Amino acid sequence: MKLSITSGAVCGVRENGQVRFLPHLGIEQCARAGFDRMEYNLLAGPTADRLMARGNWREELFRLRQTLDENAMIVPYTHDAWFMMAQTVDASDVAFKEEMVRRSVEATCILGGKRMVVHAQSIYDSEGYNESKTWEYNRAFLSEIGELAARDGIGLDVENLFPVAGMIEFSSRAEDLMNLMQTINDPTMGICWDLGHANMAKVDHMQALETVAPWLRLIHAADNKATVDEHNIPGYGTVPWDAVMSKLKSIGYAGDLNLSVRTFAYPSIPQQRVRALEMLFGIGNDLIDMFDKA
Fold first, then answer.
1. pTM of the complete model beyond 0.70
2. CB burial class (10 A; 0-12, 13-18, 19+) of residue 94?
3. Alpha carbon of 140 to those of 102, 119, 180: distances in Å?
4. pLDDT in tens, the chain (294 residues)
């Protein structure tokens, strides 16, 4: 098992009461702390700065790739420029955000990634959650993105979410993702299991991991107390890490452990940034040691 970190943990810094989007600095600081693998989140940044929607997005990505190379940092996987259907305004807004997901495939190529994490959608209408429309949309759109990605040798990993009234219903259960994998039946498609999201959904962690095991390609490691999706440091919430790492070992998990955290994202004291990342690097390796010894 190899350790990686999300770019969301380092893409911004607080200076003079404001958050500045500084992804190149974040990459350099991750490398200084010991990381050599990163999941780059293409919904870029803690502000309104959205990389994929800008006119020079390709040029920006090539510059990011140069910074990654200079710091011996690889991006085995990205996270697409995700959106939630319930937050879209109209059909043109849906079309724009779907195009951001399509662009994410090319962005993944530019950054050197071989897999891309995506979100499934939940469709609501005047009567509430519409299960049949949800299945119809996800089968069609994920199949389209999967085919687009496969042309460039990229696989998709659908991430689990957690219930949010009127916004998210689908994919909060392991069975949703299992049924989606079986329905689409694409060997290049897998599952990214986010342990923090699973904790928010109050699932049985052990049973859920057993359910998704045949398609499990990536683990997002984050913690919370099952009340707010804090993306906290593993061990600072209620996820049962000993049992989880043991279960991952028993099901033969062969993917990476990605620290999907935000807790140390934007320290206002510059000297704290690398120190915080060094602590995260140690915590991630402690989890891998638990896995190895299970």
1. yes
2. middle
3. 14, 14, 11
4. 999 999 888 766 666 666 666 788 889 999 999 999 999 999 865 444 578 888 899 999 999 999 999 999 999 999 999 888 888 889 999 999 999 999 999 999 999 999 999 999 999 988 889 999 999 999 999 999 999 999 999 999 999 999 998 788 999 999 999 999 999 999 999 999 999 999 999 999 999 999 999 999 999 999 999 999 989 999 999 999 999 999 999 999 999 999 999 766 566 677 778 888 999 999 999 999 999 999
The residues near 220 (Cβ < 8 Å, ≥ 6 apart) are 6, 159, 192, 193, 194, 195, 196, 197, 258, 260
CB contact at 8 A, 77 and 114: yes
Q: DSSP for the chain? A: --EEEEGGGTSEEEETTEEEE-HHHHHHHHHHHT--EEEEESS--SSS--GGGSTTHHHHHHHHHHHHHHTT-EEEEEE-----GGG--SHHHHHHHHHHHHHHHHHHHHHT-SEEEEE----EETTEE-HHHHHHHHHHHHHHHHHHHHHTT-EEEEEP---BTTTB-TTSSHHHHHHHHHHH--TTEEEEEEHHHHHHTT--HHHHHHHHGGGEEEEEE-B--SSS---BPTTSSS--HHHHHHHHHHTT--SEEEE---TTS--SSHHHHHHHHHHHHHHHHHHHHHHHH-
CA distance 132 to 282: 45
Find out whether 78 and 104 touch, Cβ atoms under 8 Å.
yes
User: What's the rounded Cα separation, in Å, for the pair 72 and 233?
Assistant: 25
Judge contact between 238 and 198, C-beta under 8 A: no
